[in-house]
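User: structure tokens for this one?
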Amino acid sequence: MFGYYLDLALRSLKRSPGLTALMVLAIGFGVAASMTTWSVFRAVSGDPIPWKSSKLFVPQLDIWGPDSRKKGGYNDIADAFDYTDAVALMRDHRGKLQSAMYQVSPSVVPADAAKHPINVTGHAVFSEFFPMVDAPFKYGSGWSAQDDQNRSRVLVLSDKLNQKLFGDVNSVGRSVDIEGKDYRVVGVVAHWNPQPRYYDVVNTGGFVGDGAEDVFLPFNTAIDVGMPNNGNTNCNAIPKESGFVGLQHSTCVWISYMVELDNAAQVESYRNYLEGYMRQQQQAGRFNWPPKYELRVLPDWLSFEHVVPDDTKVSLLVALGLLIVCLVNTAGLLLAKFLRRSGEIGVRRALGAPRNAVYAQFLTEAGMVGAAGGVLGLLLTGVGVACVGWVLPKDIAALAKLDVSLLAMTLLVAVVATVLAGLYPTWRASRVQPAWQLKSN
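Assistant:
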């Protein structure tokens, strides 16, 4: 019977090609607009580490006080640490895993003297950073806690930099010259570019396009060799000393921090620790305002930092509005098309066709329009994803991908939305009175 309805629907659509084309265009453009913006929104709002994001927390400490917030015109406390607090929290080690981190951009000197030094990007972190963020290793592993304490000159390379320096081989144990000092390779991270860059939103803003980090160095080692911060630095007062050492002695905030806590008891214990730490700092005369701190779980932290750009939310709402307008127009066109066939419906009903048969026939026709609109929508979605960089920042636009799930959703949305739009026209068509139609004809 379904094949019979398909045949009837195809004949009906062929009888009015202009009207059919209008409906297909409306569905195609509406679905393409919504799916293109959805592809961007999905990329920027996804959980970057869903299997453990509920265990990752970002602490904040109020070391500047309420007066600084009044002057700065913002309401919350600083979203990064100064050097004093970062080192103190690492030394106390109250979480299961934790790491302070700051952004670096050193120069790597190739072994071939004929080649120029390579400027790379990366982070200075502690050894617990790698298991905390589940960094995927291609060769070797991260360094040890002993390396942190000994301030060893070790490093972890990205797969891309490893290939550039050594070719596609296991380089663990080999040396890399960074700004005139040799570092021993202990691990090579496989391609890993989480988006958003959840472990350091403060410095990256959340998104860095396709650029994976090149190197990871021990935090203490980077401090020892004077490797400067390449990320954001915010100060409430001018540092008393100049240079990188002066930055370490100042109250400027420039260090990101993340801690892993496995359960509610650990979270409560860590909150108590932060409360106690701030009270100690107050009693030591570091500040004279009531202790204040925050401890946000990763999803809340990303929301707090406004990682999902407001532009993408507005674009998604506008696109969904456009889809609704297209569906309303399609419903109007279907209503006109179906009611124009009242005579045919009356004859079928008079010959004994039940209303369910009329429903099935016209919903099948609506579904065919939706499928055709979905095919057009697929093509337009592909064009839209390719051109999204014209209206959004490149780092964010690069995240929009045309994958199988997006293609399947485009077709599904087109068919389901069109069938829903056809419910009212179909209901009106099924209410046609056979006797009145036969009499009027």
